[in-house]
Amino acid sequence: MTNDTLTISEMCVRFDVTPRTLRFYEDKELLSPIRDGQKRLYTKREVGRMQWISHGKRFGFSLEEIRELLELYYLGDQQETQLRRTYETGLKHLATLKDKKEELISSIEDLETLLTQCKDQIENLPLRAAAE
Amino acid sequence: MTNDTLTISEMCVRFDVTPRTLRFYEDKELLSPIRDGQKRLYTKREVGRMQWISHGKRFGFSLEEIRELLELYYLGDQQETQLRRTYETGLKHLATLKDKKEELISSIEDLETLLTQCKDQIENLPLRAAAE
DNA sequence: CTTAACCTTTACGTTAACGTAAACTTCTCT
DNA sequence: AGAGAAGTTTACGTTAACGTAAAGGTTAAG
């Protein structure tokens, strides 16, 4: 019974999304689950793709940008031209991710500085009034 | 002449946004430039805030989430309660940022793996036909 | 057999984050 | 004075990414 495919509700639990979201992604050609009759079944490949979608969203990429990147999950019998294009797209995404990483690191430092200042202010609060 | 305030168009250049965007952020109380007659002037503080907005957007935060964080830029004569709340909010954001950082790092690794595979495929392409 | 759980399609609704157009002021330059 | 550049307010429009409701098919349990 424990096949290596997931139902739509299992996917929903796993990625904390609604069925609507998964169908929406399918409509946008980000996912293409197989069918058992009417029902959708998500293979390991779809799970992998959904993983990327999930991460991509958290990093602020649009679904369209994510869709481009997902080409890397095919890599079937592609034309050389297409294969190279996919590769180039991947490289660009990689560069963007690395940029964001740097930006993120310095943002974390900035926020830590702000928090330190905030903490100082809290600790040096004027002891209120005098009545105690 | 070179005051330490920026006009709206200077802000637009600096952050690569339209005037509409800056006015929109003002409407949402993310920014509050001073006025010279009708015209908006952005002080160093507003520039600092806009810096955060810009980063926040790139990391996938909503404007509402960013607005909360921006409280850290006031730190004026706040009530202790409010100050602590602001501090807590900041801590949560910091934790989220750190999570995203980890996620980002492993995503970069994953993408690099995919790209390596893709590169392999390109290099091992069947030399087409034979006619040459 | 029928009820419930789970799935489906179709289609209109909603929210965030701006875009865009119209009509007006203010300043500077010639 | 007249033209242009840069700014303003007001308000309707747009797009992405789903939410939500209606109406119905399928399968296991009682």
Structure overview:
- Two copies of one chain form a homodimer.
- With 132 residues, chain A is mainly alpha-helical.
- Chain A contains five helices and two strands.
- Chain A has helices at residues 8-15, 19-27, 44-58, 63-69, 80-123; strands spanning 34-36, 39-41.
- Chain A has a two-stranded antiparallel sheet.
- Chain A is flat, with a radius of gyration of 23 Å.
- The first copy, chain A, starts with 7 loop residues before the first helix and ends in a 9-residue tail after the last helix.
- The mean pLDDT of chain A is 91.
- Chain A binds chain B through residues 52, 55, 57-60, 69, 72-73, 75, 78, 80, 83-84, 86-87, 90-91, 93-94, 97-98, 100-101, 103-105, 107-108, 110-112, 114-115, 117-119, 121-122, 125, 128, and chain B through 52, 55, 57-60, 69, 72-73, 75, 78, 80, 83-84, 86-87, 90-91, 93-94, 97-98, 100-101, 103-105, 107-108, 110-112, 114-115, 117-119, 121-122, 125.
- The first copy, chain A, binds a DNA duplex (30 and 30 nucleotides) through helix 2.
Question: What are the SSEs and their pairings?
Answer:
Two copies of one chain form a homodimer.
Chain A: H1 8-15, H2 19-27, E1 34-36, E2 39-41, H3 44-58, H4 63-69, H5 80-123
Antiparallel strand pairs in A: 1-2
The first copy, chain A, binds a DNA duplex (30 and 30 nucleotides) through residues 7-9, 18-21, 23-24, 28, 37-40, 62-64.
Give the averaged pLDDT of chain A, no decimals: 91
Measured by residues with Cβ under 8 Å of the partner chain's Cβ, the largest interface is: A-B, 41 and 40 residues
Oligomer kind: homodimer
**Tally of alpha and pi helices of chain A:** 5
Strand order of the largest sheet of chain A: 1-2
Fraction of residues of chain A in helices? 55-70%
